[in-house]
Target: Dioxygenase
Amino acid sequence: MRNVTKDNITEVFAAYFGEDTDPRTRQVLIALARHIHDFAREVNLSHDEWRKGLEFLEWAGRITTPERNEFVLLSDVLGLSSLVDMMHSTPEATSSSVLGPFHVSNPPALEIGGDMKRDFEGEVLLVEGTVRDTSGKPIPRAMIDIWQTAPNGMYSSQDPDQDIHSFHGLMTCDWEGRYAFTTVRPVSYTVPDDGPVGEILRAAGRHPWRPSHLHYIVSAPGHRQLVTEVFPDDDPYLDQDTVFGVRDDLVMTYVPQPAGSFPEGFALSGKVEGSYSRVDFDLVLAPLHEA
Amino acid sequence: MRNVTKDNITEVFAAYFGEDTDPRTRQVLIALARHIHDFAREVNLSHDEWRKGLEFLEWAGRITTPERNEFVLLSDVLGLSSLVDMMHSTPEATSSSVLGPFHVSNPPALEIGGDMKRDFEGEVLLVEGTVRDTSGKPIPRAMIDIWQTAPNGMYSSQDPDQDIHSFHGLMTCDWEGRYAFTTVRPVSYTVPDDGPVGEILRAAGRHPWRPSHLHYIVSAPGHRQLVTEVFPDDDPYLDQDTVFGVRDDLVMTYVPQPAGSFPEGFALSGKVEGSYSRVDFDLVLAPLHEA
Model:
């Protein structure tokens, strides 16, 4: 090992593993080291650049809290989060998309047809759909965890003026897999750019905007949990999402509905007199084990 | 961008750069993203493994302080720090080696022939040598920053019982480039292994030991600063340094000297009556600009 050189250090690293180590851990760590070494060699990484990289990680560490995870954001803007999503999505199922850092662990229950916007003002949105399996069969009683920004562009955990449960809801679909709720249209917003990730975005000539979206986590026994988002097809940032989260099958038309047409059977029935928009978003879950 | 796939995301990332971005930043960030993407694709990184990796970085962030930098340690045990050192060392100069996290920014002055061990007990070591340029000419008045562990295996910044300046010294060589000081023999020690780096070492079946060494930073106008270490040739961890810091030309014999032979001209002259060891370690600095 004292004859380690810049050309053999990856082999030296690999040879240093103990014999009874977990094969998968070994595979992942050796591949990680090899790609890090190859990166450093390819760009002839300088000491200053190496130090700057470490300082970025230290900075990310200092500002990371349960409410703001700069490491997840770094993974997001580098495209790694989306890549891992895409590698594990099932072509027959709805595409998955980034979880993001704003999910809360105890969302409040939301009844079918319930209202998630509470007292917030904005374009009323009626969201509904059915959760199905890959054969098209509805999945009864699927669980949908939904969250989004308030009209000010902030999630509850970012905004001291919002209750932590604001714009979060956990819904159990009916026996035919149907869900429905009302909300206000979420808005395009910027990811936090006052940390190291912001520096990277500026260095790359990129903006911190994400197109407007609703987040979903959909779960049902016997099916793979789906983490995804739905985007309106008229958002200006659809083709420049800074976290690479948009997929074609997640882009939906928010169809304008005339005033006076708000349907019966919702918590807001009788209260929405003006126009609103309606979005149908069906979700297809992959089986937990491939057939 | 809404047609991003696991196969084209690296190209999408690269194409997203603004046109007036710094070419070097662009090169480094695109190469970094490509290697991260290739790593994830090659090992088919799972969501759980991705999350575990992020949790490791978060953990590193939580325990990193000015005195303990877990990110530097991570770079060290992955071999990245040594790789960057080796990529930028000059073959004609003394090999560089890892800086490590235990350097202090204001080392106390140490006269030529001075004693760095103060009141600590241990095997007395007389260290001397000459700083030269690559043509063999002594470099007058070179500056040497030296630090090491106490006999208990701890650096001053790790040990509440040591003064922060304990076993640190800054020496100006004489006009013939010579330096000399006394100390006690540094000991093999373990890098901190109670954090995420310790988990990685255990998963790899590796121990956290480093062979005993003295750290040097050598500076002189017109020459490249050299960060290096010197190791005794009888240390049991020479071929298993957990941070890959050993180089052949940094391994020296600590030559035992008989009792009563301690030379004149040192702060400890007349005080060392027993045996001691002597190590000659000459240092060769590369020119700041290649000829």
